[in-house]
Amino acid sequence: MTATGGGLSPAARHLGRQALPAGDGWAAEGTGTTGGATATAEQVHVVSSRAELVAALGGDNATNRGNATPKIIYVRGVVDGFERPDGALLDCVDLADPAYSLPAYLAAYDPAVWGRVAPSGPLEAARVRSVTNQTRQTQINVGPNTTIIGLGDARLTGLTLMLDGAHNTIVRNLTFDDARDCFPAWSPTDGAAGNWNSQYDQVSVRRSEHVWIDHNTFTDGDNPDSGQPVHLGRPYQVHDGSVDVTHTASLVTVSYNRFVGRDKVMLIGSSNTVGPDVGRLKVSLHHNLFDGVLQRLPRVRFGQVDVWNNHYRLAGDGFEYAIGVGVQSAVVAENNFFSLGAGVGAGDLLYDWGGTAVTTRGNWVRAAGDRARPVDLVAAYNGAHEPDLTPDAGWTPTLRRGPVLPAPAVPAVVGALAGADRLPL
């Protein structure tokens, strides 16, 4: 780790101290988002390992979330969340509690044996202890007033950046891949046949305000969900979200990112329970590419969420929906472009998760074998589903930097600019 950031180009030094531009989405409201822009020279770090990343964030992963000292952290090369301090890589077996094994878990909680009730008892307790072991290792806690920015093709693999109470934080120019869960939970009542659920997001934003997630790429790397086995009759799900915004977080801007080949991408809102999330969860998404992803683009509860000038390339048998309209959500989706493969139609792009209204205007769709054309997404949804959604979310976004592009221009602009390794570093 270089404590003074030696060897950085002038462009890297400039971008490391760059604040979110004025008016650029919800994270620009009020005081705006500056990250570690005021960091002293001693708080500018270049890291290339998990141990160095933890040290730069404050020194102790268990307490780093409370470290509010302004800091700029440049990531060089690959940082692996499964890396020990000596550089050796752990695997799931190393993190498992001695009393846990997957074959024993599958045998014990097979619905034919256990029934369709939640797992309990010694094996489930051992799984939970295993999860605790993994969380200590692969969940990297970030404190307030922090900028984390990748140099070149920097990659964070097998880890979660946990922004819990991390006010005024910037994450840019990083590739995130394979934030895998070694010990997924079996939920026998989740859906008609049960489901496996994992808990590790690539970036998790909780109880934080003024967060800017920009110019990153999110993938499952060489461990895609499609390659997982089937256990207890359901796909073994080892990945959760790319960027989830929950637990009263608010004032977040997600811009110029690529989300590629993932299942669950972005959940906004912790649960359907009316409570502290009401009035929070204000998130802006613009100029992102959603490429071959399946759902939660985003799925929203409660929040005022502004979705504009994004490009969606959607296809495949596993596709479920793009924008999920959840309880008391207020989504505005404007001037987005949807490129659809065979079997996906305009009526499939919204999904009613208990919401009632969504504003959609200026969106275009190019269906397989057809020309691009403007589409009223609410009318298309209502034509195929009951009950109807109403076409007014009840608010008008004002925090947008620069002109909103006409939807037909979006694919070219987003294709050229979105994702990691697009900034001049």
TrEMBL record:
Family: Belongs to the polysaccharide lyase 1 family.
One annotated GO molecular function: lyase activity
Protein name (Swiss-Prot/TrEMBL): Polysaccharide lyase family 1 protein
Domain Pectate lyase: 95-344
Pfam families documented for this protein: Pectate_lyase_4
UniProt keyword terms in alphabetical order: Carbohydrate metabolism, Lyase, Polysaccharide degradation, Secreted
InterPro entries per UniProt: Pec_lyase, Pectin_lyas_fold, Pectin_lyase_fold/virulence, PEL
Chief localization: secreted
Subcellular localization: Secreted
